[in-house]
Amino acid sequence: MWGKISTKLLFSTTCHPQTDGQIKVVNITLSTLLRAVIKKNIKTWEKCLPQVEFAYNRVVHSTTQLSPFEIVYGFNPLTPLDLLPLPKISQFKNKSGQVKVEYVKKMHEKVKSQIEKKMEGYAKYANKGRKNVTFEPGDWVWVHFKKEWFPSQRNSKLMPRRDGPFQVLAKINYNAYKIDLPGE
């Protein structure tokens, strides 16, 4: 069924639990919810995990306007017992697997368009005060030195965070340039 609905499974590892930004947000939300449920009974967190998972998957999300259960199964169960004879809704009874696949595909298209619409709103808000500045080879620019990127230039917290001007040697893309830095 995963192949028929064009789902790509991206598994994460314990060292790198986030496959994208959404997973990171979900992990933060679930840990907050788990903390609220277990309170000071820290040793019982494993017993609470199924209830927290069910509660999270039943909540309608602001981006999709649907719960994860509705997106995956086509309905929002009231209790975990509703999930036993999957799927348990009248529109799926006595129908072929292809009809189920078509229904799930339509649901995924709807959710995808809602997510894209929400992302456009986020981008519009984030880019509201920004202006697009491009440089050409030969231009002079100031460089912000981050310790991770330039350890030799930023070996102390008290050193200036930016320095320059330096000359642009080449334009790599709209947001990356090769700069003539001293000692590089």
What structural category do the secondary elements indicate? alpha+beta
Average residue pLDDT: 80
Supply Rg.
Answer: 25 Å
**How many runs of DSSP E, i.e. beta strands?**
3
* Uncertain ranges: none
Cα shape: elongated
Q: Give the topology string: H per helix, E per strand.
A: HHHHEEE
Can you tell me about this structure?
There is one protein chain. The chain is α+β, with helices and mostly antiparallel strands. Helix content is 37%, strand content 11%. It contains four helices and three strands. It has a three-stranded antiparallel beta sheet, with no helix packed on it. A hairpin with a 2-residue loop joins strand 2 (162-173) and strand 3 (176-179). Helix 1 (21-38) packs across helix 2 (45-58). The N and C termini lie far apart (53 Å). The relative contact order is 0.07.
